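Write out this protein's structure.
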Amino acid sequence: MCPADVPPNPSPDLSDLPDVRTSPPPVVRGEPVELSDGVYVIPDGRVELVPNVGIVVGEHSALVIDTGMGPRNGAYVLEQARRLAGDRHLYLTVTHFHPEHGFGAQAFKGVATIVYNAAQRAELHRKGASYVEMFRGLSAAAAAELEGVELVDPDLVYEGAAELDLGGRTAALRAVGPAHTGSDQVIVIDDRVLFGGDLIETRIFPIAPYFPPYDVDVNGPGWIGVLDDLIARGPEIVVPGHGEVADVSLIRDVRDYLDHVYGEVTRLRAAGVSADEAAARIDEEARARWATWERPEWIGFAARAFYAGAQH
């Protein structure tokens, strides 16, 4: 468990968040799909609060990437991993600490080696309990999946970068935050397949979890810089946190959007425009320019986060 002496912060106002109350239950479903030799994903099906879950199988070990939200989803992901990996040693890592990505980890405690970067562990300790409460407030279905949730510490913690030898297959773990969160991690399999978490979404406006004063770690320039680096690395297959698997062009699309928001925020702030007015102007333009993308509610969060960051 995370240390009991870390008090939860009050949950932020949920009124501006996307309304998921009528969405399908946030349950990981379906069979793993093989993307490359030994590299699988359980697709999210574009269901709210469900991530793309990765399973990578080597000769002697396997790696699970993200768990879904809560113990039931974690148990399902573990079942699928065992079905593919047999009695191979299991590792678990998560792209970032948010509930739908990592709050099923309790199913893996004691049966897999859980690996986080140091900043992930610290952010989980600071914010995990409050995020449980916040996500419970999103919908009755989300609250049901979080019933009985326990936040668990990793077995191994690394700084900067780590490499897992799975046997004939290598998983490179790299801490890249602050960007989407204060502790984002990317996982690259054999220099070919990138698991990018919520640094990247397919046809969904990037999620900017800016909830002052509770959570203000989203970092616009850092996020854009991470995407520039990932583009330069040129992965063949890109697995986003949510939405369909794609190629490196997806990273460029997300990068261009974030760069647009950051540039407009910088321009408008320099002209004396308030944060709320800047967010409203950027929202209107972005909805028209990226008309096929879902969840435009996140545009204003990104604009306000980048505006606040420009003050420092």
